[in-house]
Amino acid sequence: MTRLLQARRSDITEAAQMLRDGRLVAFGTETVYGLGGIATSAETVARIFAAKNRPVFNPLISHFPTIEAALHEVIASPISQRLAEAFWPGPLTLILPRHADSRICDLACAGLASVAVRVPAHPVARALLQEVGLPVAAPSANPSGRVSPTSAAHVLAGLEGRIDAVLDMGDCPVGLESTVLDLTGAHPVILRPGAITNDALERVIGPFARREAVPSPEENDAVLRSPGLMSSHYAPSLPLRLNAQDCHENEALLAFGTPFPDAPLIWNLSASGDMVEAAARLYAGLHFLDKTGCAQGLEGIAVMKMSEHGLGQAIMDRLKRAAAPRTRHPGHDASESLT
Ligand code: TXA
Ligand code: MG
């Protein structure tokens, strides 16, 4: 059974104790809900992979309440220090070499020599992490390959009965995952565009090669450098049609700006064309259109065109992956789409 806990002191303490006991507790962050488990226990981390049906070659992000706690587990560099001070707490994940004394287990890092660390901005998440006092591994709290959750209801819809508790922290204000920046090579490389835009990063660390920075979904599948970025991901069960110029009668509409007339079912990301609002409403929209559209017998989701600049880059990255043909990878026992 999955317990529903509230964002009050006594429940936060209980959630922290459950995590310390090796149980799985989903909790909200400013980006999306994470499926938490202590990163120091291989047994707990194995249960996270099992609950999500996530391929074990895809490493997890460890979460911390403070910059100091996060950088303690890695070999920090001047650039990582600058980025941490500029963006933490906040939606940036840094990939850094693991410290020899790091307590994070091999399985959480999928056996890599690097580790992903992040200090989330949500005050309840930070209070929880503070009380746990150990690194908390937390992938997005959805079955692998499916749409990420931005509310406790989304988490329960995907993982009820497979995890021990959900700490209900309301809707996630940002609504898109953190930007993942790899600092293990000669130059910083964005592995996943996210809530912190290229422009914001460049203001702190100067220009970096943007064109090479984000591998196309196909290139990424070939090299699997960031294994979580496989081309089919974030996928609802209904197929998506991107940059639609109209809406067919058997399609739901993910709108941006003024919706096409006559769509049988509409979710507007932002009537005023605001990208921050669109990011915050993206996953809730995909959950809603998928569930309600299926119930109404619709056969697809038409997606209106939007800009790929700034936050639009991360939004379009997620939509392209949600629209990609469902792929399977060897050794992964996925019944439907892979991640
Ligand atoms: O906003 C977020 O980042 C959310 C919240 C819960 O913090 N978490 C999240 O986790 O999105 P997840 O597991 O869904 O995505 C983590 C991404 C994956 O693409 C994974 O491949 C990549 O980070 N990653 C983790 N460790 C890595 C490493 N050592 N090297 C390269 N990529 C890594
Ligand atoms: Mg995810």
Describe this structure in words.
The chain is of the alpha/beta class and 339 residues long. It is 32% helix and 17% strand. The chain has 11 helices and 14 strands. The structure holds threonylcarbamoyladenylate and magnesium ion. Threonylcarbamoyladenylate binds next to strand 5, strand 6 and strand 10.
Keywords:
339 residues; alpha/beta; ten-stranded mixed sheet; four-stranded parallel sheet; 14 strands; globular; disordered C terminus; binds threonylcarbamoyladenylate; binds magnesium ion
Judged by helices, strands and strand pairing, the structural class is alpha/beta
* Spatial separation of the terminal alpha carbons: 25 Å
Strands in their spatial order, largest beta sheet: 1-8-2-3-7-4-6-5-9-10
Number of strands: 14
Q: Helix share of residues?
A: 25-40%
